[in-house]
Write a structure and sequence with these properties.
- The chain folds into two domains: 146 residues, NAD(P)-binding Rossmann-like Domain (Rossmann fold, 3-Layer(aba) Sandwich); 51 residues, no CATH class.
- Helix content is 36%, strand content 21%.
- It has a six-stranded parallel beta sheet with strand order 3-2-1-4-5-6, sandwiched between helices. Strands 7-8 form a two-stranded parallel sheet.
- The longest helix has 13 residues.
- It comes from Fodinisporobacter ferrooxydans.
- This is Zinc-binding dehydrogenase.
- Pfam families: ADH_zinc_N.
Length: 203
Amino acid sequence: MAWRTGFGAAVRAAKVTPGSTVAVFGIGGVGVNAIQGARIAGASKIIACDLKPQNLDIVKTFGATHTVNVGDGDTVEALKDLTGGFGVHFAIDCTGNTNAASTAWQGTRRGGTTVVIGAFNPKKELVLPAGGFHRVGKTLKGSFYGDVHPFRDFPIIAQLYLDGKFQLDELVLSRIGLDQINDAFDSFHDSVSINVGRTVVEF
């Protein structure tokens, strides 16, 4: 469930604090809800990082205050430019891409936290800069389903939805029949397809 994983990544795993700065890498179904979680947690600056311009446009309606296209220039420098040269307090990687996770780490300020929520290819390696590593005091954290506990967190999310603070209806990109399911799978790999949300199969 992308909505619980993304929400949990920000609220439970990263423990985003009011007034903090947050970068979210990978603005798909999980990333957009990490942005919602950061907004609900009171982050002052929420930076969406993705390759797709169409995703970056839409995600502003879910709470992103700034966007960075990771295909344009130096993403780490862009994050530092948006945070007074320091980097973000919290970075959340939802891509499953080790290069993106490394960039998220480098874009996190000293004492900050980088949370990896995406599933890596087990044959890949995560490479981090070793210079000054012992001085930065940063935390790199893996998270399984956003560290969410259903009995504790589902009622909270449901109430946030009922109160109009958590957008669920807007996450439905389209409703299709079972005969169209392959088209929905194909859209995940389409470089121009909007994937901020999920397709619902109606029986």
